[in-house]
Amino acid sequence: MTSFYRRYILPPLLDRAMSDRRISRYRRPVLAPASGRVLEIGFGTGANLSHYPESVRQLEIVEPDTALHARAQRRLAKTSRQVIVHALSAEQLPFDTGSFDTVVSTFTLCSIPDVASALREIHRVLKPGGQFLFLEHGLSPEEGVARWQHRLTPLQKVIGGGCHLDRPMRSLIEQAGLTVQSSDYDERYAPKLPKIVAWLTSGVAKKTVG
Ligand SMILES: C[S@@+](CC[C@H](N)C(=O)[O-])C[C@H]1O[C@@H](n2cnc3c(N)ncnc32)[C@H](O)[C@@H]1O
Q1: What is the rounded distance in angstroms from the CA atom of residue 122 to the CA atom of residue 116?
Q2: What is the count of structural domains for the chain?
Q3: What atom of ligand 1 comes closest to residue 91's alpha carbon?
Q4: DSSP states of 48-108
Q5: 156: left (phi over 0), alpha (psi -120 to 50) or beta
Q6: pLDDT tens readout for residues 141-156
Q7: Which secondary structure element, helix H or strand E, spans residue 8, and what is its range?
């Protein structure tokens, strides 16, 4: 049942949810600084593809879920960008240390089982001074909302493809050694969504030199 759900039911649901204007309106500003050699982790159905700046002509992506690859094909077929697909987990990346200028994650850190390892890998593959662009939902600062996020995460993991509602995104990013740039950082509830999924954090975190 679980594999049937994840193979046939979840991909169209995810595609629809990730294309929803209530969250997709945040994608373009977060991706605007993308430059140089770019890696996106958790590509999903490719909802970011049309939101990268024109100057990004090539993109490498990591996505372990092959059911989502099939769904992403429609967008991959339409793009003029060169997209190099790696069907693997972000928890262990096969790339050289210091080899990317930009790493991108949108609504992905919630779903990676060992998120601390993935963030360590992101830090490792970034060049010194490289940037991690993130847009994630996570643990609300409101105690009552956070309590419900903790309660409902076990259910959300089943229906949402491993998604946790209650991860403290900013501190996870900082624990990996990345420095969140306060000028670019933003956190807020996305309007018109249930608060348990609506607390968004976004911005730029740098691999600082020295
Ligand atoms: C909610 S979807 C978001 C998809 C896409 N990033 C977006 O913004 O539309 C979560 C994504 O995380 C991916 N994911 C889960 N575990 C992962 C892992 N270990 N490494 C990389 N991606 C992973 C899922 O396959 C899925 O594509």
Answers
A1: 10
A2: 1
A3: 19
A4: TGGGS-TT--EEEEE---HHHHHHHHHHHHH--SEEEEE-S-TTS--SPTT-EEEEEEES-
A5: alpha
A6: 999 999 999 999 999 9
A7: none
Show the tokens assigned to 153. Answer: 């995460």
Q: Whose CA is nearest to atom 4 of ligand 1?
A: 44
pLDDT at residue 88, rounded to an integer: 96
Tokens linked to 189? 């509830």
pTM: 0.97
Helices (H), the chain: 2-4, 10-19, 21-24, 27-31, 66-78, 115-125, 143-159, 169-175, 195-198
Q: What is the pLDDT of residues 66-120, one digit of tens each?
A: 999 888 999 999 999 999 999 999 999 999 999 999 999 999 999 999 999 999 9
3-class secondary-structure state, position 189? strand
Report CA(16)–ligand 1 centroid distance (Å): 14
Residue 210 has pLDDT above 80, yes or no: no
Task: Supply the range of the domain harboring residue 169.
Answer: 2-206
Query: Is ligand 1 within 6 A of the CB of residue 89?
Result: yes
What is the mean predicted confidence (pLDDT) over 41-61?
97
Q: Which residue has the tokens 């939101």?
A: 51
Cβ of 63 below 6 Å from ligand 1: yes
CATH number at residue 27: 3.40.50.150
